[in-house]
Amino acid sequence: MFYQRPTLSKFLIEHLRGAPSEQDLSALLVDVAAAVKTIAAVVAKGQLHFRGEAAPDRATVNVHGEVQKPLDVLTNEIVLRHCEWGGLVAGMVSEELDEPYPIPADHRRGRYLLVFDPLDGSSNIDVNVSVGSIFSVLRHDTEAPPGPRDYLQPGHRQIAAGYAIYGPTTMLVLTVGNGTHGFTLDREIGNFILTHPDLRIPSETSEFAINTSNERFWEPPVQRYVGECKEGRSGIRERDFNMRWIASMVAEVHRILMRGGVFMYPRDTKDPKKPGRLRLLYEANPMALLVEQAGGRGSTGRGPLLDVQPESIHQRIPVVLGSHEEVERIERYHREFEDGTDRPFVSPLFNERSLFRPEAL
Ligand SMILES: O=P(O)(O)OC[C@H]1O[C@](O)(COP(=O)(O)O)[C@@H](O)[C@@H]1O
Fold it and tell me: Which amino acid positions bind Mg(2+) 1, per UniProt (predicted)?
């Protein structure tokens, strides 16, 4: 019976019972879940929410120079308002804000830092494709208000991470360090119900996700991996692969958690100063923790994502996530490329081994 399945609150109480120092974490995650329910309602209304006001008239530009849609701004406000009041967080970093958000002086400060992307994949909103919110929780164990440097903690120091996906159903997928668990929003009773306990990613896969329009800018190890997948059963992988690209990282990672696969947003050699598109603190790290807690692997292509020491709050990073053996293979291809022992892959695009070796940059 559905009522025998735990709600999110019951799950958190049970899973954090042995960690008295983290009792506030349950309360914070319940606040995050309340923000997610509000965002789910707003996203589901779409343009109805704006009573016919044309989105482009109200679009602004965020810290990254990207167009902020009204929903980006609104969902950012929703997370801030739900999480600032409870005395649980010491500060917040959002994709939509240039600087960390300080807790207002009339609110108590807590011991956690919340970093989040309130509406990932928001360019998909106009075409009614799944979008999501991503968040990560770090510790802040001092009384002093946090400065930007306090947020620069490697991903393995996250004490909780998760995402919400606003699709045909709204789901919250969460880890507090003991597995990755999926909850489905039951709109009739207003609760998240544990529907996908202990998700496990198959270690091998025959599905990959990458934006192939950037193929000419990928580094050779990525060209080699994808090239070999595309060769199918007549190539060295001896099996056919399938490709998916939704352009919504949350939806992509959700698919991988459900049935395996690899997601890549690799380094782009057209601009060596821009190491990838996705943000380390509030996109790559939480997703890497969720994937690793489900038995997968999160990598930059060259090593574990969760070991990267962040240098700035909005830092970008190359991302390779998913089935363990496939991610390890991609890391091996990077090593072999760097020590010159890689198998030449002749790209049908260029009909030569590669245009991009680091020394050419
Ligand atoms: O448009 P591209 O290059 O395919 O990029 C898609 C990627 O950008 C993202 O949408 C992130 O971009 P936003 O931060 O603008 O939402 C990811 O969710 C997705 O994987």
Answer: 95, 117, 119
Q: % helix / strand / coil in the chain, to the nearest 5?
A: 40, 20, 40
Reported as a single tens digit per residue, the pLDDT across 186-229 is 999 999 999 999 999 998 899 999 999 999 999 999 999 999 99
Closest CA to 37 of 212, 237, 189: 189
Locate 242 and state its tokens. 């399938």
From the CB of 94, is ligand 1 less than 6 Å away?
no
Quote the ligand 1 centre to 327 CA distance (angstroms).
20
**Complete domains list, the chain, with CATH:** 2-196 (3.30.540.10), 207-360 (3.40.190.80)
**249, 281, 315: residue to mutate for ligand 1 pocket, most atoms within 8 A of CB:** 249
* Pocket-testing residue among 63, 75, 265, 268, ligand 1, by greatest number of atoms within 8 A of Cβ: 265
Q: Which of 89, 73, 98 is nearest to 31 (CA)?
A: 89
CA-closest residue to ligand 1 atom 1: 247
Predicted TM-score (pTM) of the model is 0.91
Task: Convert the pLDDT of each residue in 275-315 to its tens digit.
Answer: 899 999 999 999 999 999 999 999 999 999 999 999 999 99
Beta-ladder partners of 113: 91, 138
Please report which confidence band the pLDDT of residue 4 belongs to, taking 50, 70 and 90 as the band edges. Answer: confident
307 vs 305: CA distance, rounded Å: 5
